[in-house]
Every structure is written in structure tokens, then in C-alpha cells.
Design a protein that fits this description.
By secondary structure, the protein is of the alpha/beta class. The chain has helices at residues 2-27, 29-65, 69-74, 100-111, 132-145, 168-187, 209-219, 243-260, 276-282, 292-303, 327-342, 347-355, 362-387, 392-396, 399-402, 405-434, 445-453, 458-479, and strands spanning 88-94, 120-127, 151-157, 194-198, 204-205, 226-233, 272-275, 309-318.
Length: 499
């Protein structure tokens, strides 16, 4: 009963917020107008605050990319890193029906990494339900790359195992258990010397990824009680993506970059790394959830009674923007992808129910619980409040409100605040240009203009690809298991779309 109420809570709070704003805009438009002005000011201050975090992260990421991290590991003045060559990296690539070309690029990035390949254990985790095509692709990858790494293992996750949701988490758990049984235990590699990197299949690492990961691990205050989060750059196929896909790609990257300089709020997302020893102790990924990349953080956090942190690597991994050969299918897939990410709200009832039985400090419970709820509530409501509901008092407030001074000033104050906030959009657009990969020959000066102009679509993007999928996810959670989401794998392709 308690869990059911907690599942209802996020969606009910979002709909209550929007419903009250609509109702009070008609009944008490003055109250709503004052609230909107205060809220817009708050949103502007938060935007400025996050922008400075974004700039700090960008500068540090750019600096980290220039460092040879193997040199830092071998520096004799660093006593903490003297045994760095004892560290092994177990890399898991869960695979579904992705094309060979996408997978090959990911493995090429491993092959070209500035790191000892005899310390890399690579697992290509295929799904039985993908059929013979998946097996053929996996064997082709193995034939090309097996010789480049210390160990190479193909695992096949069986279909329809009891209690599982078919998806990335279940596949990863099967794969890591197989790697433990077939490689790690027979070789007697100490668990505390292994770092696990769970990568989406399209993840291409920068050449210094394992160097900086190993360095951060060995110099961390609590290396065995930490996850390690890179910055995801969705730029592998960015020149093939339509404008809306590019906006969402860079918006996601910027959100993660902001939180990299705000580590107390950081949780794991998409491709990241963690200690093998801790994974063994918690029993690996839960196999009955969709949002396994964030849930694994909360599994660690709860198991270690709050003694868990995410260390920002401030170093990029490169992933695919959401692109298909069809423009409208791309738009549909963008929505589905955002809805799946928003389904991370399933963590709310899990965490809050566990808080009541876990011996975690009240300070941690209040801080983590509040910010978790605030993040999902803001995701579902903020864009609607700013760009739509903020105008309701003027539209439906009635004749008395229409002749008031507040009615006259509300649109002007709101427009002024939005104009100030648009400065952040302009600077973000410029920053996005600097993150683009090497330009293709057909990329001309006019494309820069277009890539800057596309940010005009940001308000529409925040509503259609932000608030709407978040509201749907929270509503589905609220309505019960019949409406819950299953795992949806984002299709990977190399499209010719260039709009």
C-alpha cells in the first residue's frame, strides 16, 4: 500500500500543480500572476547558477582532454598510483539489433585507447531474442577485435527469464555473471582491482578514458564506494541529425556537464564505470527495472547506507544522437527516448520506501529525497509554467484583472525575464558549436548560421520533448502496473538526414 501511494505521488503532484494554476488563474488571477513573476525570477537565477556550472565543467573537460593520463599514472611522485598496472577494466557492451557499423566504431575506440590493452576484458552481451543476426554480428566483431584485448567474451542473455524485464539491466547482469564465472574467478583477479564500465553499444571513448578513470579511482578518497561518470556527448552522427535531435542531444550533454561540477547532486546516467567488488556485493543490476543506469546508483547508495558518491570524470564519451532515415520516425523516437529517461521516476517509490528501513542519516534522506522529487517535478512542469501557464491569468483572469496594473505588467515582466534568460541560450548555442566533431567537407559557413538559429526552437523542445514525456511517465507510474513502461532500445542508424 505504501509503495502504491509513493508511485502515485510524483504524478499527482505534477497534475495538482498544473491544475491549481489553471483553476486559480480563473478564480484568483492576482495570486497566480504574483507567483508567475516570482517563479520566473527563480528560474532566471537558477539558469544563471547552472550556466556558471556549465562553463566550469566545459573548461575542465577541455583541459582534461589535453592531458596524457598515463604520464600522470606513471609519475613517481604520485604514491597512490604506483600500482596502477594492477587495475583491470571489465567493459560490457549490451547489444540488441544494432548494425555492425555502429558496434565496430565503438570497438575501434577501445582499440585506439591510450591504455594497456592487456588490462581490458571486453564483453559483448547479445540478446537471444535478437536472433541469428545478432550472433552473426557479434562473431564478426569478435573475429576482428578479439586479438586486441586481454580477454574477449560473447554472452547471450536468454529470453523470457522469470521476473525479468527484457532490457539493458537484465542483459548486463547476465553478462557480468558469465564474465565472473568464466574469466575473473578462474584467473583469480582480485575483485578490488577491477573497474566495470557499462557502456551503451554506441559509446566511443576518448583515447584517455581509461587513463583518467584509473587515476580518479586510485586517487579517490573512497575508491570502492564511488561510481565514475563521464560526460556524454551525443555527436557521433550529429551531422545526420535534424535540428530537434541536435537540440535534445546538446541539452542532455549540457545538463550532465552542469551536474559534473555539482557532484553532490550527481547520479549515474547511461555509460559510466564502477567497482566490480561493490557490484558483486549488491548482487549486480536489478533485472526488473527499466532505468538501470540510475537505479544502480541507488542500489549502491542504499546498500552502503548513504556512503556512496559519484565522481565526475569531466571527460567525454561519444554517443549517437537519436536519428533514423525518416524525419517523422526520428521525432517519434526522440519522444520515446525522453519518455524512457523520464521513467527514471520509478526510482522515487523505490528510494523513498527504502529510506524508511535503511539506516541513513536524516540529512542525507531529506537532501537526496527532496532533490530527486524536485528534479522530476521540474522536468514535468517548469517549461509548461514558464511558456504556457504563465499567460493564463491574462487570458482567463476576467475583466477585473484585465484592467489591473498587474495584468498590464505581467506580460512585460515575463518577457523581460525571458529575454535575459535567452542570453544563456545564445551562449549555449555557441558552446554547442565548439563541441561539434570535425566538420565534413560539405559543412559551409551557412551551416553555422543554421546551427545557431536552431536554438530558437528551445521553448518548443522543452515542452514537447521535456514536459510532455515526463508527464506521461509520471502518469503511467501513477495509474499502476498495467500502464508501466517496458524497456525501449533506441534504434541506432547512420542516416542521410542533414536538416
Amino acid at each position: 500500500m505504501k509503495t502504491k501511494l509513493l508511485e502515485i505521488f510524483p504524478g499527482a503532484l505534477a497534475w495538482l500543480t498544473l491544475g491549481l494554476l489553471a483553476f486559480l488563474s480563473f478564480k484568483q488571477p492576482v495570486w497566480v500572476a504574483v507567483f508567475i513573476i516570482i517563479f520566473d525570477c527563480y528560474w532566471l537565477c537558477k539558469t544563471i547558477f547552472l550556466y556558471f556550472h556549465l562553463q566550469a565543467s566545459f573548461r575542465q573537460m577541455r583541459a582534461n582532454k589535453k592531458i596524457n593520463w598515463i604520464d600522470k599514472l606513471t609519475d613517481n611522485r604520485q604514491s597512490a598510483t604506483k600500482n596502477w598496472q594492477n587495475i583491470y577494466h571489465l567493459i560490457i557492451f549490451p547489444m540488441y539489433k544494432e548494425p555492425y557499423e555502429v558496434i565496430r566504431e565503438s570497438f575501434l575506440s577501445l582499440k585506439n585507447a591510450n591504455y594497456s590493452k592487456d588490462k581490458l576484458i571486453v564483453v559483448l552481451a547479445i540478446e537471444q531474442i535478437a536472433g541469428a543476426a545478432g550472433e552473426i554480428t557479434a562473431q564478426k566483431i569478435k573475429g576482428e577485435f578479439e586479438k586486441d584485448f586481454f580477454k574477449f567474451l560473447i554472452t547471450c542473455h536468454p529470453a523470457n527469464l522469470p521476473g525479468e524485464i527484457a532490457g539493458k539491466g537484465a542483459n548486463e547482469t547476465w553478462a557480468i555473471k558469465e564474465a565472473k564465472k568464466l574469466i575473473i574467478d578462474p584467473l583469480e583477479i582480485p575483485y578490488e582491482n577491477i573497474l566495470v564500465s557499462a557502456f551503451d553499444i554506441d559509446t566511443q571513448i576518448g583515447p584517455e578514458y581509461f587513463g583518467i578513470l584509473t587515476y580518479k579511482f586510485l586517487t579517490a578518497e573512497k575508491p570502492q564506494n564511488s561510481s565514475y561518470q563521464p560526460v556524454p556527448l551525443f555527436t557521433n552522427n550529429i551531422y545526420q541529425a535534424p535540428a530537434l535531435a541536435r537540440l535534445i542531444a546538446f541539452s542532455t550533454t549540457f545538463w550532465m556537464m552542469m551536474h559534473q561540477s555539482w557532484p553532490e547532486r550527481l547520479t549515474t546516467f547511461s555509460s559510466h564505470s564502477m567497482p566490480f567488488k561493490a557490484l558483486v556485493e549488491i548482487g549486480f543490476w536489478q533485472t526488473n527495472v527499466v532505468s538501470e543506469d540510475s537505479r544502480i546508483f541507488w542500489q549502491f547508495f542504499l546498500h552502503y547506507k548513504g556512503d556512496w558518491q559519484v565522481i565526475p570524470l569531466l571527460y567525454p564519451v561519444y554517443m549517437d544522437a537519436n536519428v533514423t532515415p525518416s524525419f517523422w520516425r526520428t521525432i517519434k523516437n526522440l519522444y520515446k527516448q525522453q519518455r524512457r529517461w523520464a521513467w527514471g521516476v520509478e526510482n522515487v517509490p523505490y528510494i523513498l520506501s527504502e529510506f524508511s528501513v535503511k539506516k541513513i542519516s536524516w540529512g542525507q534522506k531529506i537532501y537526496r529525497g527532496f532533490h530527486l522529487m524536485e528534479d522530476f517535478h521540474s522536468w514535468a512542469t517548469n517549461a509548461l509554467i514558464i511558456f504556457i501557464f504563465g499567460w493564463l491569468p491574462v487570458l482567463i483572469g476576467g475583466a477585473n484583472f484585465d484592467i489591473s496594473l498587474l495584468s498590464y505588467n505581467l506580460p512585460r515582466v515575463t518577457s523581460f525575464i525571458m529575454t535575459l534568460a535567452s542570453i544563456g541560450i545564445v551562449t549555449s548555442a555557441a558552446l554547442a558549436l565548439s563541441l561539434l566533431p570535425p566538420k565534413p567537407k560539405k559543412f559551409k559557413f551557412r551551416h553555422y548560421i543554421f546551427y545557431l538559429a536552431q536554438w530558437i526552437l528551445m521553448p518548443i523542445t522543452l515542452i514537447i520533448m521535456g514536459s510532455f514525456p515526463a508527464l506521461e511517465a509520471q502518469t503511467r507510474l501513477m495509474l499502476g502496473k498495467k500502464f508501466h513502461l517496458d524497456f525501449w532500445a533506441t534504434p541506432k542508424s547512420r542516416s542521410k538526414i542533414t536538416g
